[in-house]
Every structure is written in structure tokens, then in C-alpha cells.
Amino acid sequence: MITTSNILITISLTELDLDDEDLQAEVQNLLPQLREVDGVEDADLVAVENAPKKTKALGGFLLGLLNAEVNPANIKTLFQFMSDRFGNKPIKMVLKAADGRELNLEASSREEFEFACQKAQDFLNNTSNS
């Protein structure tokens, strides 16, 4: 049985080694593209009240972080998009399932994105079987 609950994915671009202004520009550029990916139900900036430790904020939002609500059936499409867009750059992602479990992933090459995608699919399959 495949879970029908959407998952929340936090995407961190903070490892791109950009200054604050360029990092925020990268996030602002990515956001509308992310919203167009099949299976992405919603995407937005991460508000300050959800701030992890050691994060910077600008205008009430955290620098370099995006949240995406994704249909689990389309997780592969999202990872393909991320791989195409950031195939040789370090990206961190946190997947949060409806049951509260989390999976932290990092990728900085196309091969690592493929591996991370497989880990995400395994994680979602285990979630649906719980």
C-alpha cells in the first residue's frame, strides 16, 4: 500500500557557498520552478518561526531554505528536477512523513541524487507499511 499523505521536504541551498544576497536570489529563482514540478502540491520559503539552529533570516524567512509539500508518488520527479538543477552542487534535504518520522539526505552529484532518491523511496515505502 502506498501512502497518500503528502510529505514535507525542506530543501537547503546553504551549502552553495554564496553570500546572503546571492543565496536569497537563488532561492527566489528556484521557488517558481519548484512549484511547476509534477507532484509538488505547494512550495514556499521557510518562515523564521521554524528556524533550525545556526540559520540566518532575511525579511521573516530563512536564507537558503525552501519547503515543498510533495505527493509521494512523484518523489522521483522532484529528485530528477533537483539533480538536473543542482547535479554538481551540495544540497541538503529533510523529508518529513505524515507520521512524524524524518529522513536527512545530502547530495552533491547526479549519482548521489539517484542514491538519495532511492533512500527517499525506501523511506516512504516503510512509512506506508507502518
Give an overview of the whole structure.
The protein is α+β, with helices and mostly antiparallel strands and 130 residues long. It is built from 3 helices and 6 strands, in the order βαβββαββα. Strands 1, 2, 3, 4, 5 and 6 form a 6-stranded antiparallel β-sheet that branches. The chain is globular, with a radius of gyration of 14 Å.
Count, helices: 3
CATH architecture: 2-Layer Sandwich
CATH topology: Alpha-Beta Plaits
Q: Would you list the SSEs in sequence order as H and E? A: EHEEEHEEH
Distance between the termini: 10 Å
- Radius of gyration (CA) equals 14 Å
Describe the largest sheet: 6 strands, antiparallel
Q: How would you sum up the global shape?
A: globular
CATH class: Alpha Beta
Tally of discrete structural domains: 1
- Low-confidence spans: none
- The percent of residues in helical segments reads 25-40%
Structural class: alpha+beta
Determine the strand fraction and express it as a percent band: 25-35%
Give a count of the beta strands, DSSP E runs of length 2 or more: 6
Mean of residue pLDDT values:
85
